[in-house]
Design a protein that fits this description.
133 residues, three-stranded mixed β-sheet, alpha+beta, 6 strands
Length: 133
């Protein structure tokens, strides 16, 4: 009986240690991946989405997946989220980033539909401007 209890205790301890050592490699599905901040964005009069993003010299539209969500029930207003799928491993110095343009057609939206970019705006990722004086 004592052997069975010790064996059970040892098995539980091994399982507990194994679970602790692998928790950092198990993906967490309860938290969404953070989206990359952008420098600025706007919607042009013809419905294009213009986004200024951070770049080390290799960023282009293929670096991002652009996903629009919304419906006519939401008043034809759409949210667009950009997710970087290709890292920019270049070493150029582009403090102003690069401007990328997605047409409403590329996003699958009517040209007159208002859209909002859900990515946060972070204008101080590069060196912030110094006050004069």
């Amino acid at each position: 009986m004592m052997t069975r209890i010790l064996t059970l205790g040892l098995a539980l301890a091994v399982l507990g240690v194994g679970a602790c050592t692998h928790t950092d490699t198990v993906p967490r599905f309860d938290e969404p991946e953070p989206v990359e901040p952008v420098l600025a964005w706007r919607q042009s009069r013809n419905g294009n989405l213009l986004v200024r993003v951070f770049s080390n010299g290799c960023t282009n539209k293929d670096s991002f997946d652009a996903v629009a969500t919304g419906s006519p029930r939401a008043g034809w207003a759409f949210d667009v989220t950009l997710t970087r799928v290709e890292p920019d491993t270049c070493e150029a110095m582009l403090p102003q980033g690069v401007e990328l343009v997605w047409t409403a057609d590329e996003l699958g939206l009517p040209a007159t539909a208002p859209m909002t970019l859900t990515n946060p705006v972070d204008t101080y990722r590069s060196v912030p401007p110094q006050p004069v004086g």
